[in-house]
From TrEMBL:
Secretion signal, residue range per the UniProt entry: none
One BP annotation, GO: protein O-linked glycosylation via N-acetyl-galactosamine
Family matches, as Gene3D superfamilies: Spore Coat Polysaccharide Biosynthesis Protein SpsA, Chain A
GO molecular function: xylosyl alpha-1,3-xylosyltransferase activity
InterPro entries: Glyco_trans_8, Nucleotide-diphossugar_trans, XXLT1
Protein name per Swiss-Prot or TrEMBL: XXLT1 xylosyltransferase
GO cellular component: endoplasmic reticulum membrane
Keywords of this entry: Transferase
Top-level taxon of the source organism: Eukaryota
Source organism per UniProt: Serilophus lunatus
């Protein structure tokens, strides 16, 4: 069954919820009404009908090497308290974004590569446990403008990648809200940061062992042919 949602109607519902975070995580200098659609996943639990309990949200620049149904099984692996399944970011973009916080906190794991670091998240493949998102007092508190402001100030954070930035920043503070998907479920191919100052550490972020289930051709990167 396919249900088509009107983007303007969704934006109307979303805007009041995400308006406060847009100025921190949008490419533009202000809060653009249309930008709020880039924060759809953040508040999906507030605008979808209550009978919808789980949703997989994916980018368009993906290539599937396995049945998407297998991805739904990953919901069963969520630990207690986790509300969202998401893969790590595979470039040092957040090593860059958190530069000031990292300079002030030289021992931090923030922005460090896996397996021990916190490289941030990539929102190309998202498992949203809507029921858990609705029930989580902590998650809903983090959507409040005062909490968003508090965290952006703590981490000196200014991003431009919408929901991905929000999840990344929240994940630095509350990793327990996230189930980390294996990189093979979101094998990102973009190598932009390799040529922009991070060639020495790039491979630590970009490495992904295992058989790829979903390729993600982010930043217009060609996806391998079969």
């Amino acid at each position: 069954q396919v249900i088509v949602h009107d983007v303007n109607e969704l934006t109307e519902k979303l805007f009041p919820i995400v308006e406060a975070m847009q100025k921190h995580f949008s490419a533009g200098s202000g809060t653009y009404y249309s930008d709020s659609i880039f924060f759809l996943s953040v508040a999906m639990h507030r605008i979808m009908p209550k009978e919808i309990t789980q949703i997989i949200q994916v980018d368009l620049d993906l290539k599937y090497k396995t049945n998407i149904r297998d991805l739904f099984d990953e919901f069963d692996n969520f630990p207690e308290g986790a509300v969202i399944g998401i893969a790590r970011e595979m470039q040092p973009v957040y090593r860059h974004t958190f530069w000031q916080y990292r300079r002030e906190n030289p021992q931090t794991k923030v922005g460090e590569p896996p397996p021990d670091g916190l490289p941030g998240f990539n929102s190309g493949v998202l498992l949203l446990n809507l029921e858990a998102m609705r029930q989580s007092k902590l998650y809903n508190q983090l959507l409040e403008p005062t909490m968003v402001q508090k965290l952006t100030e703590k981490y000196h954070f200014k991003g431009h990648l919408g929901d991905q930035d929000f999840f990344t920043m929240v994940g630095m503070e509350h990793p327990e809200l996230f189930y980390v998907l294996d990189c093979t479920w979101n094998r990102q191919l973009c190598t932009w940061w390799k040529d922009h100052g991070y060639s020495d550490v790039f491979d630590q972020y970009f490495q992904c062992d295992g058989e790829v289930k979903i390729y993600h051709g982010n930043c217009n990167t060609p996806i391998p042919e079969d």
